[in-house]
Amino acid sequence: MAGMSNSTRIENDSLGPRNVPADALYGAQTSRSIENFRLSGAPLPIEIVHGMALLKLACARANAKLGLLAANKEKAVADACRAILSGAHDREFPIDLYQAGSGTSSHMNLNEVLANLANEALGGKRGAKAPVHPNDDVNMGQSTNNCFPSGAKIAVLGQTLLLLDALAALEKTLRAKAAEFAHVLKTGRTHLQDAVPVTLGQEFGAYARAVQLAAERIRAAAARLRELGIGGNAVGTGINTKPAFRAEILAALNEETGGEFRPAEDGIYLTQFMTDFAHVSAAFRSCALDLQQIANNLRLLASGPLTGLGEIRLPPVEPGSSIMPGKINPSICEAVNMVCFQVQGLDHAVALACGAGQLELNTHMPLIGANALQAAKLLSAAVRALAEKCVAGIAADEAACRRHLERSAGLPTLLNPRLGYDRVAQLVKEGLATGQTLKELVLEQKLLTAAEYEALLASSTGPNL
Question: What are the catalytic residues?
Fold first, then answer.
C-alpha cells in the first residue's frame, strides 16, 4: 500500500493539518478515514471505485462541454480516471468497507487521487491541490450521495452481466445432459420416498429450466441498475448544476462504456431509496435457492456410491478423505452450497440496509453496494464451477436407475387404470412380503405380458422425453 514510507507531507482539510505519507496519491481526508475506520480489514470493493471513476470521467467531459472546466483540466482528469480504471492505482484505495454511511470516505479518496494524478500531469505538486482541486474541479457538480450509489450500480451491473453469461453456460450444459440422459428411465421421488417414474433427462431438463428462469429474473431486476442519480447533487435536486448537466453526463458515460444508462426520473427518490439494489439482490437470492436445490439433488443422486442412490456419478475433483482411501466426495456441490448460503446472508443484510434510510438519504450505501457486488461475484464463480467441474462430467449409472425403478413402491401406480387401486395395493404388499419386484409379480400372475409391461414403462413419463 502507498504510504508505507516513513517520510510524510503535511496537507490540510477542513479539520486542519494532517500528516500524509509522502508517496501517497491520496490526501488528508483519506488519511483520516484510514485511521477512523479499522473495522474489517477489507477495503471497499475496487469495482465500486472503478464505477465512480467512470462517472468522474463522464462528469469532467460534461463540465467541459458546458464551459465549466478548462480543456487541459478535463484531459488531465480523464487521463487520471483511465489510469485508475486500468488498475494501476488500486492500492491507493485502502479505506475499510465499513465507513461513513454515504460512502464519503471512499468518494473523497477517489477525488484526492484523481486530483493528484491530474496535477502531476499538468506539472503541479502532489498534495498541492492545484491547478486541479479535488472538490472544486474533480467533484464539480457532484455529491457522494449520488456519485457513490451510481458508481455502485455500474459495478453491480457489470458483475451481473458476467453472472448472466455464467448462467447461460450452465443452462446449456444441463440441457446437453438432459438430452444425453433422455432414455434413462428411473424412479421419481417425492417426500424422499418412491414415486412414479421419470427419466434422468427430465430431471436435468427441470434443472436447466430453473437456471433459465433464474437468469430471466436477474436480467429483469438488473435493468433498474441502469437508472442513475448522478448529477442530482446532495438531495437529488441538482443544486449548483446547469439544467443540461445530467443529460451530458449520461451521454458521455454511454459513449465511454457503450452502455444504456439513463438519468433518474426522480432524482430525489433515487437519492433516498436504494430499492433497486434490494430488487437485484433478491433475484440473486432466488438464484441461490435454485442452485442450492440443484446441488443437493446432485449430491443425493450420486450418494453412496454403493449404499446410497448411486444413480449418477460425479466427476472426481480431489481425494475425499484423509483416512478413507479411495473416498470421493461431491466437493463442488458442497462449495456451491456454501456460496448459496452466503448469498442469502448477504441479501438479508442488503434488505435491512435498504430499509434503514431516513429522510433524504440512505446512510448504509457501502454495505448495500459491496454485498450486492459480492453476491454476484460469488454466484458467477460458483455457477461456472458447477457447470465446468461437475455437471459437464456427470455420467449416468443406468443399471442402478433400472434396479431402483424395478423395486420402486411408486411403480405400481402405473397399473391403477388397468387393475384398480385396491388390486394394485395388494400387489405392493405382496412385493414387500416376498421381495419380488412388480415385474416379477405381474408376469407370474399373468396380469401383463413382458411386452405390455415394457410398453407401460415407456409411456409412463409423458411426452417430455
Answer: 191, 321
